[in-house]
Write a structure and sequence with these properties.
The complex is a heterodimer of chains A (about 425) and B (about 375). Chain A has about 425 residues and is an alpha+beta fold. Helix content of chain A is about 45%, strand content about 10%.
């Protein structure tokens, strides 16, 4: 334990000598382009913040983190060794409690030595200190009282799980008020810290169609490349593929239409129809409800889409290996891949029939994640780009109108035609 | 005053007190009775292997999950942790009486939803991402082997949460189950047997000339197992009851939309497609199969939380759950999720039976090894004699 504390103190000394970078949102004077063009204004530095450069600069920061990690680990090993060998006599319990409390002090030292920009580390170390002190208290208690405290924790824990399972809005209504408030006041930090917020509503209320993400990347020299997520044959392991599927789900939550201003929606619809007539993009099917045509993602979804666009620009440089040619913009399409009904399946229709894809345009992004000027004004933003068959003008049959290709200005190889699985 | 009048009151108080005492005894027995750790330790081995695979699979595209330019990049991750808020109903009716979305927003409570923590939120140099990832792989391997299990179980849990809190949009049910398993395996004495810790313990005892100590039975083992069991029941019940809200589950067609989901289902496998076509050609067969599948799902998800506690139904329900998840793994492509669920349902397996099974397996393997070794020796012996 002493060794652990010494290492932590060394980390603390080093912390005082190194430069402490500013927290990202706080003290940063540059505006943050995020969430598809929404620019967050810079915030004032927190009180007492001074941009002290430090004696050693920033290069010793990794050593500081290593010292803190090793120090905490050594303290943890000391606690483990003590718990393995100690007895439950009162005297031994007091010694064990003291050791646990000292481990908590180790956590406090690490807290003091942490860089100000490592905000999530503060959260973790707060939990370490709290658990150490709670454990010290628990060890001191006689067995019946210890069991009682643990029982209270069990009840609290599973009430939290119950809150997590019920605190999810069902379609068209809200989650129970009581669950909402219990989550707000009693469980947010606890469940959030443990990553236990899942409601376990798997495939409910109904198994929906998968959400895909397609990116059209345009480089400065005019070259265009499509990146489709996910693609089974491009994933090195099955788990990689499943993780990319999950990414599509993250943006599927849309702002309910009734939350939008009616007048604004009418204007958008008029622009969409006019734009469709100019560009030759298929009109909106009149029978389908507006919710199916217009799917503006919620705020979180917009954050993620901007981030995905930035990732694509970073991870997919020019295909001909010319690093000097940067990415100019990325168009993002959210594509819902509908499934065949049994009747369609029996008729021999392919699950890859192009008309089963419902692409929605989710914006054109600059490398910093904000909308391009054209993207911000695009009348098709968040609208469905229907892929439909319509009678050909010469009356000889039907022709495919692929509004995605028309809107993107290039053909996605994935939409090259019908494939039979 | 009749002398025997207060008697019923005393008896009812006593009855209540007895009831409370009996409940407390039952509660104590349920949660804190020391238990054989074999089931928990086997779960550690299986879960450890799965967790190791999960973390190795991160290596193929590590920086797109946790790097500074990941799918959720550092800028977004910082924003989510530090500034993101969610809207919740107000404590009065003002949000319900609002006439415009703006008024409603002003009336609502706005709270910070994210309590994310991860070392990957702060590492800006990809080389350090790789260094930390390498350390994590080492720790998970140690946990799987049961080396310094009490320490490595905590480190494995913390390390895996570093990925979950960072790659938040690349997660699915498997990660949730893995987190649950790791949390409870950390609480219980999951290295008491089937571990290198146990091998070292035996070796130390032999070196000192002491008898080999018996496997520790501890209250923490039972506590962890019970936590897993109750949590599993919550998962199943929530999953089953939420499906009751869905129209396709009521009409019995829900399974079709999982079987024909091109992104998940193995629709590039000819046998699978041939089977689906055969099924769809005969509508009564199709309807019976789909409705049967839906009923089986409900039987498992809503029935198990109640029936699994009865010894007569326990193994039957465990087998049903294993079948359900085998189906999910095969037809919906969620192999790792299913594996985690099967490991979790295994917490209901009685440790004595698991121990007997493992002992039988070990002796059977020994016999097989001996049989394999015997024919090779015969010609040598024959040659030596001649």
């Amino acid at each position: 334990m002493i060794a652990g504390l010494v290492v932590l103190l060394a980390g603390l000394v080093l912390a005082k000598l190194t430069f402490d970078p500013a927290p990202t949102f706080g003290g940063d004077n540059t505006p943050v382009p995020i969430a598809g063009g929404i620019i967050f204004p810079p915030t004032e530095p927190p009180p007492g913040y001074t941009d002290y450069p430090g004696v050693l600069g920033v290069q010793w920061n990794p050593l500081r983190v290593i010292l803190l990690g090793v120090g905490l680990l050594v303290c943890g090993v000391a606690v483990y060794r003590r718990l393995r060998t100690c007895t439950w006599q009162l005297e031994a319990r007091v010694e064990t409690a003291a050791l646990l409390a000292v481990a908590g002090v180790g956590g406090l030292i690490a807290y003091q030595a942490l860089s100000r920009s490592w905000d999530s580390g503060y959260l973790f170390l707060t939990a370490v200190v709290a658990v150490s002190l709670a454990a010290a208290f628990l060890v001191l208690l006689p067995t019946p009282a210890r069991k009682a405290v643990l029982s209270v924790w069990v009840v609290y824990h599973f009430l939290g799980i119950l809150v997590a399972t019920t605190n999810q809005d069902p379609s068209n209504t809200r989650a129970p008020y009581v669950s909402n408030k219990l989550w707000e006041f009693a469980y947010r930090p606890y469940l959030g810290f443990l990553y236990m917020n899942n409601a376990y509503h798997f495939y409910s209320p109904d198994p929906g169609p998968p959400d895909l993400l397609w990116f059209r990347v345009q480089y400065a020299d005019g070259k265009i490349r499509w990146v489709n997520m996910p693609e089974r044959d491009k994933s090195p392991v099955p788990l990689h593929y499943t993780r990319l599927i999950a990414m599509g789900n993250s943006i599927s939550a849309a702002v309910p239409i009734n939350m939008k201003d009616n007048k604004e929606m009418e204007n958008r619809k008029r622009d969409r129809v006019r734009g469709g007539m100019i560009k030759g993009i298929a009109p909106l099917p009149e029978v389908a409800p507006l919710q199916l045509h217009y799917q503006e993602p919620n705020f979180l979804g917009k954050l993620y889409i901007a981030s995905y666009a930035r990732h694509i620009m970073y991870a997919y440089p020019h295909p001909d290996g010319e690093p000097a040619v940067g990415v100019e913009s990325v168009k993002v399409y959210h594509v819902v891949h509908d499934m065949l009904t049994p009747a369609q399946f029996v008729k021999g229709e392919s699950p890859l029939n192009l008309t089963l894809y419902r692409p929605y345009f989710f914006g054109e992004f600059k490398p910093d994640g904000s909308f391009t000027e054209d993207g911000a004004r695009d009348p098709f933003l968040y609208w469905l780009l229907p892929i439909i068959y319509e009678p050909s003008p010469d009356g000889s049959g039907q022709r495919l109108i692929n509004s995605l290709d028309i809107h993107a200005g290039s053909k996605n190889p994935r939409m090259g035609g019908e494939m039979t699985p | 005053m009749k002398p025997n009048q207060p008697a019923p009151e005393i008896s009812s108080d006593k009855g209540l007190l007895d009831g409370v005492r009996s409940f407390a005894r039952g509660w104590d027995r349920f949660w804190f009775r020391p238990a054989n750790p074999t089931t928990l330790c086997l779960m550690r081995v299986l879960c450890g292997m799965a967790v190791l695979y999960v973390h190795i699979s991160y290596s193929f595209d590590l920086l797109s999950y946790v790097g500074p330019h990941a799918w959720v990049d550092q800028q977004t991750s910082d924003f989510l942790r530090q500034r993101m808020t969610v809207d919740l109903p107000s404590t009065d009716w003002s949000d319900m009486n609002a006439s415009t979305p703006q008024e409603q927003y002003q009336a609502q409570a706005h709270v910070k939803p994210q309590f994310m923590w991860s070392i990957y939120c702060h590492i800006s140099d990809p080389r350090w991402d790789w260094v930390f990832h390498g350390l994590v792989l080492g720790v998970v391997a140690m946990f799987m082997l049961g080396l310094f299990t009490r320490v490595t179980s905590v480190l494995t849990w913390a390390a895996s949460l570093c990925y979950l809190h960072r790659a938040i949009t690349n997660l699915f049910g498997m990660d949730t189950m893995m987190n649950i398993l790791l949390l409870y395996l950390m609480i219980g004495d999951s290295g008491a047997c089937l571990s290198l810790d146990r091998v070292i313990e035996k070796w130390r005892a032999r070196r000192c000339g002491l008898p080999v100590p018996p496997v520790r039975q501890s209250a923490s083992t039972n506590f962890a197992i019970r936590l897993m069991q109750i949590h599993f029941c919550f998962i199943y019940l929530s999953s089953g009851l939420s499906k009751l809200m869905g129209t396709s589950w009521w009409s019995g067609t829900a399974l079709w939309y999982t079987f024909l989901n091109y992104t998940f289902a193995p629709m590039d496998v000819p046998v699978y497609m041939a089977g689906l076509k055969l099924l769809a050609q005969y509508r009564p067969l199709w309807e019976a199969f789909m409705t049967g599948g839906v009923l089986f799902t409900f039987w498992c998800e809503i029935g198990l939380p109640f029936l699994v506690w009865d010894k007569r139904f326990r193994w039957f329900m465990i087998v049903c759950a294993v079948l359900l998840h085998t189906g999910i793994g095969l037809f919906m492509g969620l192999v790792m999720f299913s594996l985690m669920m099967i490991i979790l349902v295994f917490s209901f397996a009685p440790p004595e039976q698991v121990e007997a099974f493992l002992r039988g397996l070990a002796s059977h393997s020994r016999r097989l090894l001996q049989q394999a070794a015997t024919p090779a020796k015969v010609p040598e012996l024959a040659g030596a004699r001649s």
